[in-house]
Amino acid sequence: MPITVKDYTWEETETSVFITVPLKGVQAKKTDIFSTDKYIKVNYPPYLFEVDLFAPVVDDKSTAQVGNGTVVFKLVKKDHGIWTQLAASSGGDKKAMIEKREKEIEKAQQRAEEQQKAAAERKRQEQKYALREQMRLEEEERRRVENAKKAERELAMSELETWKKQQVQSEIAKRNEEKNKAGETERRIEVAKEEEKKPQVRAQTTEKIEPPKKKSEAAKKKSSMFEDDDANMPAIRSKGKIEVSFTPRVFPTPVRESKFHEEEEWLKKQTEAMRAADIDDPNLSEEEKNPLWLKEKGDGFYKSGNVLAAVNAYSQAIRMDSKMPALYSNRAACHLQIRNFHKAAQDSSRALELLTPPVPANAAARCKAHVRRGTSLCQLEMYVEGLMDYEAALKIDPKNETLTQDAERIRQIIQGSTDNNGNDALESLD
């Protein structure tokens, strides 16, 4: 049963009401305040202060301040004037007060729901407005881009048309020039033919009319005419040499005699040779050029937990010697550690390509490469392919119980009888 607080104080003006409620040693954080336009309640167990106000107040503008062992209310009157009393009724009817409290609480809940709905509606309207603005901006941007593209297309078409006209005019001018040259050549030929015919006609007429003495003069004249023509002829064209360059072919043999696969292999070897020449860096020490030294450095980084440094060391060693399968296999283990499963599968596959032919000396390395590739494929949810690698590893090492258990677990995952908990097949390095 709460203890009703009676020793509160209050003051009023024409516009405001001030109420001071003592907390009686109760901590401020344990105080519960509830107010409406006609009802105020302060609950701080075991004490309770509540009052049914004489007149309504503006709840949105009223305040309550907790501190210094009191709760101070500043209430703004809805209608200006003097109340002369704080409570609406001086009687201590608890039942009426309880009904009043429940009624005000219900009213406050309804008002809170209305405010919540109003806030939700306002938020929805703001979202709709923001969406419309976004659509408007996107439409403006789309139009701007379309207009820019249209302008660029028009400019390009205009330039293309101008270029076409220039080409047509150039072609016409070229044809006219060729036609003029051809006409000039024909005219010169005709003139030369006419010049050749004229002396013969003149010689025939002089033979009939003029005496023999005249004929010899005509012959002399004719020979002098040819001598003049020889003098006017252009000089014989001098000799010249035209050099034609062809695209050099990589292989000395013609295409009809070449062999594609041999050529590809030859190019591959040449590329590797050029790559080795590029690696000849004077800034590198002799140890940094030794792939075995780099492999040992990578192994040390891996064992100390510095996986990224190990990847860099193995990669540098592969640059120096791309034919060592242990480098690819160990780098695959590093990629598994950092969950780079695609590259782990690639490096494992490259290691298996180099571990040929399969002999007892490389059985352990082939087994590790199969397991690492199978683990990568399983992590990529390619369980069937991963199981194939595990089975290949079991063929190499059939007494390995860990591989047997992992392979059985993968079979169960494929059959759907268990969940994928992941394979952590990160064995020791080669």
How would you portray this structure in words?
The structure is a single chain. The chain is α+β, with helices and mostly antiparallel strands and 430 residues long. The protein is 60% helix and 10% strand. It is built from 10 helices and 8 strands. It has a 4-stranded mixed sheet, covered by helices on one side. The chain has a 4-stranded antiparallel sheet with strand order 2-3-8-7, with no helix packed on it. Strand 4 and strand 5 (39-44) form a beta hairpin. It is flat.
Characteristic key phrases:
8 strands, four-stranded antiparallel beta sheet, 10 helices, alpha+beta, 430 residues
Short structural description:
With 430 residues, this protein is of the alpha+beta class.
Major sheet characteristics: 4 strands, mixed
Low-confidence stretches: 201-210, 218-226
Overall spatial form: flat
The side-by-side strand order for the widest beta sheet comes to 1-6-5-4
Mean pLDDT: 80
Number of helices: 10
Structural class, from secondary structure content? alpha+beta
> What is the N-to-C succession of helices and strands?
EEEEEEEEHHHHHHHHHH
Estimated helix fraction: 55-70%
